[in-house]
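Hey, I was hoping to borrow your eyes for a little while. I've been puzzling over a protein and I'd love to understand its fold better. The fold is given in discrete form, as structure tokens running alongside the sequence. I'd be grateful if you could look everything over and explain what you see. No rush at all, and the record is pasted right below.
>
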Amino acid sequence: MTDYRCPTCGSQFDSRRGLGVHHSSIHGERLPNRECTNCGEQFHSEYEQKYCSDECRDAAVTYEGSNNPNYRGGKEKTDCELCGASFEYYPSEKEGLYCSDCVESKQWRERPPLEGNNNPQWKGGKLKLECAACNEIVRRYPSDVTGEVTVCDRECLSDWLSKAFTGDGHPNWKGGDTGNYGPGWNRVRREALERDGHECVICGATKVDIGRNPDVHHIVPVRVFAESEGCEKTDAHRLDNVVSLCLSCHRKADFGRLSKERLWRELGVESDNRPEPPAPVAPADGR
């Protein structure tokens, strides 16, 4: 008769099943059914298992060298292309070129040449252009040639604008001028510059950027007031009708590329407060 004796308390049973029920209910654990391949300790497992713990499995199984399923013959040796030191590397990673010290401390990546036509933004280099004011040859990248004319510097720009905007070159030319602006203009001009902080209200160019104070532009031209019935040209000299502009923005305003509505919005002038003189007086002969 087989002896089914409890290994914990020594009680004897007629069957292994009875011993197992006793051990689980009385001693709180199931009877061992396996033996650890590494340490020989008996343990219980519901499925086939060789080791009683992760520690025994790690101690018994190694993945080093040829035991690793990804083993490809081990490391290879080569010399560092920067310092010449010998080092090892895994061929499965990449071809060995630089030792670990050089990878961390030196510039080992070659930067591609970006000069001249090697640059992806290359557009043929600088262009040779003639200054519209002094006729000197200047060199500009194509991306910098954005205006209608090319000039050397701000001084030449001022000279060109002065000549281009003289007489019938001015977009508001009507065959003559209105004479001087009359009383009140200098005062309003000073007040406008102070109000606008001596900066262009459109692009923000400062007095330092421009090289002088910004221009003070009449949103509704003096000529319109001078030619309107019941108005004088001095009626144009109102703070809500003048705005500080740099040379470039002033030119855009004169050519209609900056609308009156935009300028009034920059000043915060509401539509019902904007100066709008009556229509100009028609000539007596109807022409």
